[in-house]
Amino acid sequence: MPHRVTLKVPSPPALRPRRHNALRWAVLTLGLASIGVVIGKVSTPSSPSHDPMSPANQLESITLPVDPVTLGSEQLPGANMENAPVASTDAPLGQEQGHVIDVVVERGGNLSKIFSTLDLPARELDQIVKLGDDALKLTRLRPGESITFNLSNDHQLQRISHDLGFDRTLHVVRGENGDFKSEIEQHPLEYRQTLGRGAIHSSFYQAAVDAGVAPDLVMELAEIFGWKINFLTDIQDGDSFSILYETVYKDGEPVTTGDILAASFINEGKLFQAVRHTDPRGNTAFYTPDGKSLERGFLRYPVEFSRISSKFSNARLHPILHEVRAHKGVDFAAPTGTPIRAAADGKVTFQGWKGGYGKVVTLQHDGVYSTVYGHMSRFEPALREGARVRQGQVIGYVGATGHATGPHLHYEFRINGVHKDPLSVALPEARPIPASERGRFLSESAQLIAQMVRMENETRTASLAGKDAPVQP
């Protein structure tokens, strides 16, 4: 019977996650922690408060009081084998039974240090990293990730396993001749439709979280209806919502959420509905059930922000210059490094330093509209003057360059050179479903709306029975 040992090994600062992934989740964590203020606080005269974000899913393990396995004479700091949790397992180790070691990567270590800690030969490490692209992923371990080592009774490495995502696991296996080979194991995923619904009493965010809806879906729902409902000012006590979305299962257990398929929102007694549609070219957008676009030619909010620190005004006391002057934009407070996105398709007409704006980007859209993004900490490296950008494309990152008292995005919207309030200006709607796709869309739309209504009815029935929870077919 093999033994399983959990071991923490530091990982080096140089092996941090790629910037765009780390930044994305850092921004999501910080931004959504206060999303109750940003996109759903019920209108009241009281001051806004921040809603705490529910913790992410955590893996749990059951440990048994079995004597820990000795891993050699040398151990790095943080690899305390006396107190390491241990559990039994029946996993086969090729031809032999031995022990299984789960290594949790911490800051300050790498695969070489793990091999040293486990007292494994460096020559075998060299053989493994030379196996190709798949095996090279083991050299890019990130803090918090785990890697499993299967060792024989005589402490010979038999297998290394490392999850590359929910659906793939990398295995490096010793063959009968002693050489190693790498292989990818595919895990089948199951997609089930789930309904989250609730009534709003304190904030939209809190109501959605109470309904079991993941924080990232809360943000997406606010974006879907953002052109019909002002989530900063229009949310009222008693408003309600329903979200039909996918839940991804692996081995019968939910591992993450998928796409929103359909949604409804009742605001001040008025019903708004949305359905997801992907065209033959792979472009996805949300439409009303009869095919009208719910999007605009421009994003209302080009950054995930925590609050509006300064609104559009013709007379504002400047916080640094201490003189009254027009503030012809909106300031979105957000942590330094938060991605800033192009509000619409357009062309970069300026990128550089401009006085009090600090690092700034200006985009021109269709000859009539232009937008300005100021106080950036840095530009997106691939961006250049004259380049074309797509709506939602990252053009830079929040900072406090120029005349700024703290990190925020100063955003301006202009029509034929005239400044307009970005929060209230009327924007053109995006195009409706093309005639060539209308028949297929209407059929899909009717099915999704019918499914959402059916599951709403099931939820009401469960609620009356005292079993209110997200409904799955």
Keywords:
globular, 473 residues, ten-stranded antiparallel β-sheet, 17% helix, single chain
Q: In summary, what is this structure?
A:
By secondary structure, the protein is α+β, with helices and mostly antiparallel strands. It has 8 helices and 24 strands. The chain has helices at residues 19-32, 35-38, 111-117, 122-129, 133-136, 204-210, 215-224, 438-464, and strands at residues 3-11, 86-88, 98-107, 146-152, 157-163, 168-174, 180-186, 189-199, 240-250, 253-267, 270-278, 284-287, 307-310, 313-317, 324-327, 330-333, 339-341, 346-353, 359-365, 369-379, 388-389, 394-398, 408-415, 418-420.
Structure description:
- By secondary structure, this protein is α+β, with helices and mostly antiparallel strands.
- Helices cover 17% and strands 35% of the residues.
- The protein has helices at 19-32, 35-38, 111-117, 122-129, 133-136, 204-210, 215-224, 438-464, and strands spanning 3-11, 86-88, 98-107, 146-152, 157-163, 168-174, 180-186, 189-199, 240-250, 253-267, 270-278, 284-287, 307-310, 313-317, 324-327, 330-333, 339-341, 346-353, 359-365, 369-379, 388-389, 394-398, 408-415, 418-420.
- The strands form four sheets. Strands 13, 16, 17, 18, 19, 20, 21, 22, 23 and 24 form a ten-stranded antiparallel beta sheet that branches. Strands 2-1-3-4-5-6-7 form a seven-stranded mixed beta sheet.
- The longest helix is centred in the C-terminal third of the chain and has 27 residues, at 438-464.
